[in-house]
Specification:
Blueprint lengths: L4 E7 L6 H17 L4 E3 L11 H7 L7 H13 L2 E10 L5 E8 L5 E6 L5 E3 L5 E3 L11 E4 L4 E4 L8 H9 L4 E3 L6 H19 L2 E4 L3 E3 L5 E3 L3 E3 L5 E4 L5 E7 L2 H9 L18
Parallel strand pairs: 1-2, 2-3, 9-10, 10-11
Antiparallel strand pairs: 1-16, 3-4, 4-5, 6-7, 8-9, 11-14, 12-13, 14-15
């Protein structure tokens, strides 16, 4: 019987000041490591949440100059852990910004990058409006990583609403899929738990969703409730609304068990036509 994998999810309430956010995130990463986590993940926009255009474009740096990349690389090496920084805002050099995940190995090397594919351009009730595409450029590639203990699929926040991406990752062997997020309070209260459980059930994979929680400095309300969900759709751990650390143990044998019980990943039927019957 294999040893369970202990994972740590860091919940944050990031503000505008990168140095402060990096310090806060680093403290929680150390706490997760101290609890025995071998894999630790942080939320979307770990080192800065900025809503004002001019301030955002002034603050972002290319990857090679970004203080978060350097700090989290050093921290992963110091602690000897696999560290997924859910995302950082990175200058691309073409006037646009990437919403980019970074996976660091226990030696501090970047083992994977993932740019968020689906951008949050939404107008909610009450005038709550988001136009992520105004400054961010979408990614174009799904990303899988072979770790010593599991195959990992990377997604970010709004990606959660696009099941095809998760099915693609699962059919390529993803056993764990990460969903670092900064879900709004409005959409989180309505859909966060249902969507995360659905993606776990559909894929037969563990879902790890570290989140931003509470009212962030720019005035937005984020939902929090970081979750760990089993391949059978069971919530194995849930945070509240405040910053902190959520730790859970994953029995990776449950991935194969769930997929054997309901082998839906092998039952796709291509070429199904749609018949539209008019009134």
């Amino acid at each position: 019987m294999t040893q369970p994998l202990r994972v740590g999810l860091v919940q944050l309430r990031s503000g505008r000041m990168m140095d402060h956010n990096i310090e806060m995130a680093s403290g929680f990463i150390r706490e997760a490591h101290g609890s025995g986590a071998k894999f630790v993940s942080t939320p979307e926009m770990t080192h800065m949440i900025e809503a004002e255009s001019e301030a955002l474009l002034k603050a972002v740096r290319p990857e090679a100059e970004d203080p978060g990349v350097a700090a989290f690389s050093a921290l992963a090496e110091e602690l000897g852990i696999w560290l997924l920084i859910g995302s950082l805002a990175i200058a691309r050099g073409d006037g646009k910004v990437a919403n980019r995940s970074f996976l660091f190995d226990p030696k501090g090397a970047i083992r994977a990058r993932y740019d968020k594919i689906h951008l949050f351009d939404v107008e909610l009730a009450g005038g709550e409006r988001y136009r992520e595409s105004r400054h961010y450029a979408p990614g174009s590639e799904a990303v899988l990583v072979d770790l010593p203990f599991a195959r990992l699929g990377l997604t970010i926040c709004y990606d959660l609403r696009f099941p095809y991406l998760y099915r693609m990752l699962a059919k390529e062997g993803a056993e764990i899929i990460t969903v670092p997020a900064a879900f709004t309070k409005t959409t989180g209260e309505a859909h966060w738990h249902a969507l995360l459980r659905a993606r776990a059930i559909e894929t037969g994979a563990f879902i790890l969703a570290p989140a931003q929680g509470g009212r962030v400095e720019v005035g937005r309300e984020t939902y929090g409730h970081s979750l760990v969900v089993s391949p059978w759709g069971q919530v194995l751990g849930e945070a509240g609304n405040d910053p902190g650390v959520l730790v859970a143990d994953l029995d990776l044998a449950r991935v194969a068990e769930a997929r054997a019980r309901v082998p839906s990943l092998t039952h796709d039927r291509d070429g199904i036509a749609v018949r539209h019957m008019g009134a």
